[in-house]
């Protein structure tokens, strides 16, 4: 049987490409340049264990950042103190966090 | 924040008619009482930026301060007989069976339990036999997903266990591993219950509670009685032949005593056995190669809760989508049910079919937690609602057809006798909620309509449909039984008018079964958009014997029924339709009456357009009928749209909507014999655009134009839509 390989996403993000971060910040829902699309595909294909997700604290109004456990039945772990009031705010923050995690470089583009 | 999970419940049955009753079964995680109020749903979408939630309170079916308590679920499938066979003067028992373990990382899984005799699989694949206090273990672990033939001898003279590897593995010799131990005199009695694939924990009234559920296949468990005289042959006590009665709920004992087992929680039948050699793919053709049952610790098709309240909708209650709302301080939780029209008692000319097979297939899905591809598919971070977080921690509420079991095998059976936490007003914005946009549109426009469910369509077929001038299928009627497909086709052929307001419809072949009320079966097969792949040789439905999988694989691509068939998914950016040149024919003027633009639906509550989520396209080669016309087609689906796997057959590039012309939605119309017609929107997001601007929009207008013409008894002229639709579109 064909099983999930958590290390399947092998694309390497160039952490210096702030032009891609800027493109995403300015247009969160795309369409994206091919290079940015690859970045997003990579970010959305990372291993389930530890992957960021959003917990709905108050529908349509407040979300908390969390990390998935990667184990059936084990709840996600909230990241203390990180909440958002819109999905757009959350998506931009997740992008920056993932960029840091995957490239060891910070996103230096200003927030919207 | 109000809790939606401190009280949970389900209605049994999910579908009923006015004058019948449904049993509301509630479990509490805290409150000791709750109030119950029944509402008819006009729109269940609670998004403040959506079409506007709307509910109509009913004066019947409610209760005040109803006592509630916690009700446990016993998940895991197993076979059970209240009494074992009579072993007479036996001095021991011999048990033989074949086993295919699929998850060895569990502390204890019980394969067979009869009184003091147990056969267990321990952590890491160590097989043990226990007789009373005496336990022996095999010295070598069993390997996952390989067949072993097991023999246990247990009695006054001996306790022994042996396992022979049956599967041929390239790197492992066929091996036999044995252990022996000192004897123990304790023997099973006929009064002791027999269990296969679980151990008995306790019996609580009529309910059984089991423990140590087994994950894997078991084949032909057989029991012999050993006699004191060593020269005397052992007596056959029981042989459970799982190749028999594959569609039922019983495991048949063909031995002299007929100690049949009842199968609980629907373990997988039609499972390939230890001797399956790929010469046949069907359990009906080669039953001897399908003498196995696959059990799972997380099979669960009936919570078996006690009834908290019986709801009696009056005879004249309006057909529709309903909820029983459970409320206590700080708690509000909705329990869905459907009131269907009684066949032959139509009160309207329009019938809306609620696709309950689709709702059940998706019910309680865990893909946000279990499927690595979900975020990529949705192109957005996973947002986890209270319901989804609860389900993740309460896997005993049963899985969806999109999930895999703990042993990674796919989920074949899903049932309605459990809380359906994503089939109610809330944050799961797919299927059920989207279909209530259609309900709200019908109400807003003042069209009279009846409602029935997929189960009704399956059961009553033409007796249901033939009462209506127009039948409307909803935003995502994805799962269809043969009976449902045949009934819709026959309706179309007899002058019926069919409006298909969705996408990715008529895609999977499923089966209902009188033996398994409330359960549907689906096999994923080897093609189609799937979150898991069926196992070789296991693509045939156990309920009916039919080959499962995509309808397209069985000569009935959706195009044959509705002119369009699944092409693509995209969940973030929806797009719009543009009128085709073919639609300029005067025969189609009625469709576009009142529109002042060729662009239709560049708005909507899902992704900002009426073409989105899942879309379908016209294709004569796949069965779009001669004379079918593409009235409009999508533009600019873009790279978010991904071509479904069955649409390309060689490894290739350019599969997204910016590059591939098959990534599109087509709105299709065709005339059927007897003056009937079919109109397909080719997109799920059509339904979620209807109520844009309060229903004053081009999507709404086109739908209204079609519906009004479909109400008109004037037959459609058969010759009006000849021509090559593709040529017309591209001209």
Question: What attributes does this structure have?
Answer:
heterodimer; A: alpha+beta; 3 helices; 32% helix; B: mainly beta; Immunoglobulin-like; Jelly Rolls; 16-stranded antiparallel β-sheet; 12 helices
How do you describe this structure in short?
Chain A is an alpha+beta fold and 112 residues long.
Fold and architecture overview:
The complex is a heterodimer of chains A (112) and B (731). With 112 residues, chain A is α+β, with helices and mostly antiparallel strands. Chain A has one domain (18-103). Chain A is built from three helices and three strands; from the N terminus they run ααβββα. Chain A has helices at 18-26, 34-43, 87-103; strands at residues 52-58, 62-67, 77-84. Chain A has a three-stranded antiparallel beta sheet, covered by helices on one side. In chain A, a hairpin with a 3-residue loop joins β1 and β2 (62-67). Chain A is globular. The termini of chain A are far apart. The mean pLDDT of chain A is 96. Chain B has 731 residues and is mainly β. Among the domains of chain B are: 7-71 and 308-337, Immunoglobulin-like (Sandwich); 78-295, Sandwich (Jelly Rolls); 559-682 and 724-731, no CATH class. In chain B, the strands form six sheets. Chain B has a 16-stranded antiparallel beta sheet that branches. In chain B, strands 28, 31, 32, 34, 38, 39, 40, 41, 42, 43, 44 and 45 form a twelve-stranded mixed beta sheet that branches. The longest helix of chain B has 14 residues, at 432-445. The radius of gyration of chain B is 28 Å and the shape is globular. Chain B starts with 6 loop residues before the first strand and ends with a helix. Mean pLDDT of chain B is 94; it is low at 720-731. Chain A binds chain B through residues 1-4, 6, 8, 29-32, 37, 40-41, 44-45, 47-48, 51-60, 63, 66, 68, 72-73, 75-76, 87, 90-91, 94, and chain B through 1, 46-49, 366, 368-370, 372-373, 375-376, 379-386, 389, 392-393, 395, 406, 408-409, 427, 533, 535, 572-573, 638-640, 658.
């Amino acid at each position: 049987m064909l099983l999930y390989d958590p290390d399947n996403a092998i694309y390497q993000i160039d952490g210096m490409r702030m032009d891609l971060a800027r493109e995403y910040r300015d247009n969160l829902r795309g369409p994206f340049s091919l290079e940015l699309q690859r970045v997003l595909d990579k970010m959305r294909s990372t291993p389930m264990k530890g992957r960021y997700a959003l917990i709905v604290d108050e529908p349509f109004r407040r979300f908390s950042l969390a990390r998935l456990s990667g184990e059936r039945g084990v709840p996600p772990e909230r990241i203390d103190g990180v909440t958002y009031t819109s999905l757009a705010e959350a998506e931009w923050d997740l992008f920056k966090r993932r960029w840091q995690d995957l490239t060891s470089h910070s996103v230096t583009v200003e927030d919207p | 924040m109000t809790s939606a999970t401190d009280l949970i419940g389900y209605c049994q049955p999910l579908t009923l008619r006015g004058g019948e009753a449904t049993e509301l079964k509630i479990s509490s995680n805290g409150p000791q009482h709750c109030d119950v109020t029944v509402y008819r749903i006009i729109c269940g979408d609670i998004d403040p930026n959506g079409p506007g939630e709307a509910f109509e309170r009913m004066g019947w079916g409610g209760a005040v301060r109803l006592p509630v308590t916690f009700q446990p679920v016993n998940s895991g499938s197993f076979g059970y007989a209240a009494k074992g066979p009579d072993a007479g003067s036996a001095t021991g028992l011999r048990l033989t069976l074949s086993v295919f373990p699929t998850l060895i990382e569990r502390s204890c899984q019980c394969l067979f339990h009869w009184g003091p005799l147990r056969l267990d699989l321990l952590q890491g694949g160590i097989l043990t036999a226990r007789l009373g206090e005496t336990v022996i273990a095999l010295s070598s672990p069993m390997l996952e997903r390989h067949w072993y033939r097991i023999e246990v001898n247990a009695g006054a003279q001996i306790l022994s266990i042996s396992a022979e590897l049956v599967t041929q593995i390239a790197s492992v010799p066929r091996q036999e591993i044995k252990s022996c131990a000192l004897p123990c005199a304790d023997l099973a009695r006929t009064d002791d219950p027999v269990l296969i694939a679980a151990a008995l924990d306790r019996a609580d009234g009529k309910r059984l509670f089991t423990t140590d559920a087994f994950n894997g296949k078991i084949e032909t468990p057989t029991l012999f009685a050993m006699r004191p005289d060593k020269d005397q042959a052992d007596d056959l006590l029981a042989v459970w032949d799982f190749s028999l009665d594959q569609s039922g709920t019983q495991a048949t004992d063909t031995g002299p005593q007929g100690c049949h087992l009842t199968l609980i929680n629907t373990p997988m039948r039609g499972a390939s056995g230890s001797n399956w050699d790929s010469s046949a793919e069907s359990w009906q053709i080669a039953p001897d190669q399908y003498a196995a049952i696959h059990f799972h610790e997380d099979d669960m098709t009936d919570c078996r809760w006690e009834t908290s309240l019986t709801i009696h909708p009056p005879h004249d209650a309006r057909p529709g989508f309903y909820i029983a709302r459970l409320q206590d301080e700080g708690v509000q939780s909705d329990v869905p049910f459907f009131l269907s029209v009684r066949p032959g008692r139509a009160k309207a000319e329009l019938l809306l079919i609620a696709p309950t097979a689709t709702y059940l297939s998706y019910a309680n899905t865990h893909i946000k937690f279990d499927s690595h591809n979900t975020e990529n598919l949705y192109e957005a971070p996973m947002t986890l609602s209270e319901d989804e977080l609860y389900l993740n921690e309460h896997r005993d509420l049963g899985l969806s057809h999109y999930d895999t079991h703990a042993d990674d095998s796919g989920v074949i059976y899903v049932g309605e006798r459990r809380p359906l936490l994503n089939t109610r007003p809330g944050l799961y914005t797919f299927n059920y909620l989207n279909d209530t946009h259609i309900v709200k549109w019908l109400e807003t426009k003042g069209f009279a309509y009846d409602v029935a469910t997929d189960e009704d369509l399956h059961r009553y077929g033409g007796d249901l449909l033939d009462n209506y001038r127009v039948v409307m299928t909803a935003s995502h009627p994805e799962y269809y039984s043969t009976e449902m497909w045949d009934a819709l086709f026959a309706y179309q052929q007899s002058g019926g008018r069919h409006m298909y307001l969705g996408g990715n419809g008529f895609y999977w072949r499923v089966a209902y079964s009188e033996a398994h009320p409330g359960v549907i079966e689906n096999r994923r097969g080897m093609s189609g958009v799937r979150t898991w792949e069926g196992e070789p040789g296991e693509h045939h439905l156990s309920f009916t014997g039919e080959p499962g999988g995509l309808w397209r694989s069985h000569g009935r691509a959706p195009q044959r029924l509705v002119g369009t068939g699944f092409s693509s998914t995209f969940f973030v950016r929806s797009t719009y339709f543009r009128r085709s040149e073919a639609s300029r024919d005067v025969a189609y003027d009625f469709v576009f009456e009142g529109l002042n633009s060729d662009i239709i639906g560049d708005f909507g509550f899902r992704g900002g357009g009426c073409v989105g989520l899942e879309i379908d396209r016209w294709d004569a080669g796949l069965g779009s009928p001669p004379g079918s016309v593409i009235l409009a087609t999508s533009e600019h689906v873009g790279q978010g749209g991904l071509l479904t796997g069955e649409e390309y057959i060689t490894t290739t590039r350019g599969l997204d909507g910016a590059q591939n012309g098959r990534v599109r939605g087509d709105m299709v119309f065709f005339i059927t014999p007897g003056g009937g017609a079919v109109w397909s929107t080719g997109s799920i997001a059509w339904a979620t655009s209807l109520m844009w601007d309060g229903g004053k929009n081009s999507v709404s207008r086109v739908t209204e134009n079609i519906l009004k013409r479909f109400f008109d008894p004037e037959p459609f002229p058969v010759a009006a839509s000849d021509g090559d639709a593709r040529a017309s579109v591209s001209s």
